[in-house]
Amino acid sequence: MYKILISQFGQYKKAAILTPVFTGLEALMELLIPFITSKIIDEGIQAGNLDKVYFYGGIMLVMAFFSLVLGVLAGKNAAEASSGFACNLRAKMYENIQTFSFSNIDKFSTAGLVTRMTTDVTNVQNAVQMILRIASRAPLVLLLSMGMCFFINAELSVIFLLAMVILAAALYIIMSKTTVIFKQVFSRYDDLNAEVQENVTAIRVVKAFVREDHEVGKFKKAAQNLYDLSVKAESRLAFNNPVMMLVIYGCMIALSWFGAQHIVIGDLTTGELTSMFSYVMSMMMSLMMLSMVFVMITMSAASCNRIAEVLEEKPDLTNPEMPVMEVADGRIDFKHVSFSYKHGSGEETLHDIDFHIDAGETIGIIGGTGCGKSSLVNLISRLYDADKGQVMVGGRDVRTYDMEALRNQVAVVLQKNVLFSGTILDNLRWGKEDATEEECKEVCRQACADDFIESFPDGYETWIEQGGTNVSGGQKQRLCIARALLKRPKVLILDDSTSAVDTATDARIREAFRNKIPGTTKIIIAQRISSVQDADRIMVLEDGQINGFDTHENLLKTNRIYQEIYETQQKGGGDFDQPS
């Protein structure tokens, strides 16, 4: 795990290496100052030698200046290394997420991924900065201070060894109790982000049903859970400072008592005792800083694990060694295909699906909710892989194609239409980056989107808000259809993509498909029979199996499920814009 995280320093490795170097030199300068101070006291002040005071004072000023410069350089490099590391880490996570198949994405919630790329990376960034500066400085200061103390008086230095053992034991107990709680804290962050995301995404529904108070209550509950765990963790960590101060003051008292006795005996000078006080404070402060590093590492350890899960996740779908780059035509074959979202669970979404579609055919798919319609078409563009059997496009198994080449020729307008912030032209050019404005207008005419686009004051330069919130559901669907048509695909799949469009417009879209893209295989998933009755053939799905696959007329004669759907929709008077 840590190996893959460390590799993300990339071009910032130099800054990461220079930081502890500058920090170490800065610490060395600071540690020599108390030693020089003892010389000023013993050889200058007490001896009444003003020249020595000036000499050693000058050395102290030079060392203080170098310490300042080295501290600035260490801080600059630490900031560059930690910020660059976080930037690379986010970029690598985002890059890896783009390779995920739908089944990979299903393992992580959207809120969880957002938390990992924001809160978790920030925690790790802060930990890295502390490690580069404090974790490299504190042990060095601790060891050098201890060495200087033993150099001055080995007997008194035993006090510090005992103090450090007591302090280390106390910190270990506190940290071990806190680590478990912090792991739970970050899962609560996921819950909190999920509440915010769900509410903001569905804010229109919340307001329409006057559920603001209910949503506020849910958010407060998630926030309270996070608060409770955070307080629990911080309460344990609150013992750090009292324990630390107890040990520091204990050392100071012991040093004052025994040090005074050594001065009276003549084994120790006043200057040496003064410098030992400074080194004691340096050692204790180093231990305090190390405890802070331990706290940050404890907090970030959970974040590291969560980040590593994303970085180490391998896409379920990969290209073969020698992928096929061209799709010959729009033929589609399913050869005894079975599929489940949880492989090996035994709960099959599709079971023994077997059919053949010729290039250029228009196929309708109809069936009840949850019968497997979307799952079936997702296999054609290889958004998922079948568990059993073969899915073939253009006479080849979809697993032999380069995935990008396959998906460029199998255009899918998904059930949940998504538009991105940008102009209408920007959104259309997702289908073809270098498409001309005339090409965009042509596909919009085919999708019956040109009328409403031209009614906007800015036409094709009209700005689309994030998620397409400033256009209607039907307008959004037609723009998504136009975007797919711009790819000039050999297979076009509409996954219930005209549900928000009136039947008159729906009929015009289907007529445009027949006239403008006759060679493209068209698969139309719909809830209403009027959207598919003109198709060459219609597939009826029930419980993940094909119940019927024939023309509209033949299904009305032979298929019970199709008959029931047709009669129900006819008795309901058809669609609102059709005469009953």
UniProtKB/TrEMBL annotation:
Residues 332-568 form the ABC transporter domain. Keywords: ATP-binding, Cell membrane, Membrane, Nucleotide-binding, Transmembrane, Transmembrane helix, Transport. SUPFAM superfamilies: ABC transporter transmembrane region, P-loop containing nucleoside triphosphate hydrolases. It holds the Pfam family ABC_membrane. Residues 17-299 form the ABC transmembrane type-1 domain. Its main location: membrane. One of its GO terms (molecular function) is ATP hydrolysis activity. It comes from Candidatus Caccovicinus merdipullorum. This is ABC transporter ATP-binding protein. The chain crosses the membrane at residues 21-41, 53-74, 159-175, 243-264, 276-297. It is a multi-pass membrane protein. GO terms for cellular component: plasma membrane. It is found in: Cell membrane.
